[in-house]
């Protein structure tokens, strides 16, 4: 595995892989660094004596209490850092907040972030961990910008410029890094006219010229914009960590296996070869986002949010990645599944049944149907396959319980694996969490932008497609 390459482990799943299996999955694949979004005991316990270095996150909702009192910060550090360090968890960083200055938050966390950072730092020092554990703040790349679009014009966003300087000064004084999340996929998602070749690492026929420097991909340009912003404000040697970077495999037209493999293979190759950017020749530490798909994440940013994993929900491999020296990804071992049965539409059910749309809507409100959207892996199925996919998702999500395949007499159970006719669209069977030891349900969110749990997939796309199939 490339030096400095880590991974984000998010736990927003209805059927989370047992943490001991996840830790072994990371070790088997050579990931020696992991970034967590919250101090969850069931996760931290599994990391004891694993040899994996941990960046431990603090959710944004904790910032205000931590900012209000050093005592609150001391209690948090004692419970979530000291207690686990003493038991063999190699915690290297505490990530205070997650992208707290996103414009969509409307300054909700702006005033609390630096005081919380200060209090956590003081608490770490008091606990005798000030040298061993460093603080940082994972920030979205929108905290800096370039008016002309070239990196050398980079500077911090005007509305938070002074605050960013104060944060960087604080980190610099305490020997801590700045953490930034960079998502070329989101550049493409936000702008349909974004040059797609520029999102990957293979180069482009139309580079962005910054003086004599040619930028052939958005990552280099984005990263160096930050380096220029730091340099302009007197921090030319500030260490940077890329806290999140990756590419989703479903939930959008550009979120697919081919693009995800192309992007992540390019990223891995750069790390393996020790390739930096035009402005900084040495690559930063990078945490890929993410390790495993999370079917209970908020989809407020987009349906793709549940599909960032390098691995599927059960730790199986999505696509091949070459890590050099004949090393490729290996799947999770020891995963136990629910019985081999599926819930599908009844053979004699009518597409014109007045209850059909309501039952699909109900299933997709309570389970993850993001793969059914336009341009996604199960987009474009016929009406009955749409219904079968939705019914089965609900059935599996609710652990195949009695009554969970009862959709107004429109559904039946089958032990013959159904097919959709699309290679990329499969009827899944969920992990049997009761067969695994103490797989506890997670409580809070992880990921790129938001922090609330809901099975809130808007079924509009699915229902509209189904309705058009019926009347067409």
TrEMBL record:
Please provide the Gene Ontology terms (biological process) for this protein: carbohydrate metabolic process; defense response
Q: Name one GO cellular component term.
A: plasma membrane
Has keyword Plastid? no
Q: Which SUPFAM superfamilies match?
A: (Trans)glycosidases (SSF51445)
Decide whether keyword Disulfide bond is in the record.
Answer: yes
All residue ranges annotated as the X8 domain in the record:
341-427
Name the chemical reaction catalysed here.
Answer: Hydrolysis of (1->3)-beta-D-glucosidic linkages in (1->3)-beta-D-glucans
- Which family, according to UniProt? Belongs to the glycosyl hydrolase 17 family.
Q: What is this protein called?
A: glucan endo-1,3-beta-D-glucosidase
Gene source species: Mikania micrantha (bitter vine)
């Amino acid at each position: 595995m490339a030096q400095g390459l880590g991974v984000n482990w998010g736990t927003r799943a209805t059927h989370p892989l047992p943490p001991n299996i996840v830790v072994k999955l990371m070790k088997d694949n050579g990931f020696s660094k992991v970034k967590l979004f919250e101090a969850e005991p069931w996760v931290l316990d599994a990391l004891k004596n694993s040899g994996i270095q941990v960046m431990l996150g603090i959710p944004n909702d904790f910032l205000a209490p931590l900012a209000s009192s050093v005592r609150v910060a001391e209690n948090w550090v004692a419970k979530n850092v000291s207690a686990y360090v003493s038991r063999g968890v190699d915690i290297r960083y505490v990530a205070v907040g997650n992208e707290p200055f996103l414009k969509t938050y409307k300054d909700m966390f702006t005033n609390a972030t630096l005081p919380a950072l200060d209090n956590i730092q003081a608490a770490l020092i008091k606990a005798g961990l000030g040298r061993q554990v460093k603080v940082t703040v994972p920030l979205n790349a929108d905290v800096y910008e370039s008016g002309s679009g070239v990196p050398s014009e980079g500077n911090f966003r005007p509305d938070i410029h002074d605050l960013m300087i104060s944060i960087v000064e604080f980190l610099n004084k305490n020997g801590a890094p700045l953490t930034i999340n960079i998502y070329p996929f989101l550049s493409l998602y936000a702008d349909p006219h974004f040059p797609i070749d520029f999102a990957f690492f293979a180069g482009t026929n139309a580079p962005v010229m910054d003086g004599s420097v040619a930028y052939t991909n958005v990552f280099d340009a984005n990263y160096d914009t930050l380096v220029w912003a730091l340099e302009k404000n007197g921090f030319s040697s500030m260490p940077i960590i890329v806290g999140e970077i990756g590419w989703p495999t479903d939930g959008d037209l550009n979120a697919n296996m081919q693009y995800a493999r192309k992007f992540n293979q390019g990223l891995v190759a750069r790390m393996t070869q020790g390739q930096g950017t035009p402005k900084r020749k040495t690559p930063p530490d990078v945490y890929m986002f993410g390790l495993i798909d999370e079917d209970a994440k908020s989809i407020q940013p987009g349906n793709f949010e549940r599909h960032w994993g390098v691995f599927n929900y059960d730790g199986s491999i999505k696509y091949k990645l070459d890590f050099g020296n004949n090393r490729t990804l290996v799947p999770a071992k020891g995963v136990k599944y629910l019985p081999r049965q599926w819930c599908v539409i009844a053979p004699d059910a009518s597409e014109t049944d007045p209850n059909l749309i309501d039952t699909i809507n109900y299933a997709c409100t309570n389970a993850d149907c993001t793969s059914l959207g336009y341009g996604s892996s199960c987009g474009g199925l016929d009406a009955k396959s749409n219904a079968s996919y939705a019914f089965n998702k609900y059935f599996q999500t609710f652990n195949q319980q009695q009554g969970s395949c009862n959709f107004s007499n429109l559904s039946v159970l089958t032990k013959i694996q159904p097919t959709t006719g699309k290679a990329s669209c499969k009827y899944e069977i969920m992990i049997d969490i009761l067969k695994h030891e103490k797989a506890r349900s997670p409580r809070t969110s992880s990921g790129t932008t938001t922090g609330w749990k809901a099975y809130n997939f808007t079924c509009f796309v699915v229902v509209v497609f189904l309705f058009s199939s019926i009347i067409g």
